[in-house]
Amino acid sequence: SRRGSRAASPSQVRRLRAWNRLDWELYSHLNRSFWRRAEAFGIPRLRDEVSKLRERRERLAGRCLKGGGPLPAKAIPDGNLRPFQPPGAGDILGFALREGLEPEERELCVRMAMPELQYKDLLDRRQFGEGDGKNG
């Protein structure tokens, strides 16, 4: 499913297929084990817990974020949280924190708003030696 400007060598194709197979097997295993645990936990109880977590996140987003949710990346002031923007992407949404947050509250809001950036930066450092690990 990947395309490049030049054809992949047979060894590259084998490596990509091996990684794709590993990805699929890992996904399948985690998916099966998740649903096994969810059924043991109780699906109605799981739905209730998820609903409570969504409500809590919405309240926190309302307290932390300008506009209460994501904004177009170009509307986010410099020095605020940068959005994750994959290469070749269109208009990306990101988050801007409210002004005047206490330091502890700001740290909580950053963790709530942008956890995927920490993961992306970690991957960048491991794979490419890039990423500053800072989110705000």
Automatic annotation (TrEMBL):
Xref: Pfam families: Gal-3-0_sulfotr
GO biological process: glycolipid biosynthetic process
Compartment(s) of residence: Golgi apparatus membrane
One MF annotation (Gene Ontology) recorded for this entry: galactosylceramide sulfotransferase activity
Membrane topology: Single-pass type II membrane protein
Keywords: Glycoprotein, Golgi apparatus, Membrane, Signal-anchor, Transferase, Transmembrane, Transmembrane helix
InterPro entries linked to this entry: Gal-3-0_sulfotransfrase (IPR009729)
Major subcellular location class: Golgi
One of the record's GO cellular component terms: Golgi membrane
Record-given protein name: G3ST4 sulfotransferase
Origin organism lineage: Eukaryota, Metazoa, Chordata, Craniata, Vertebrata
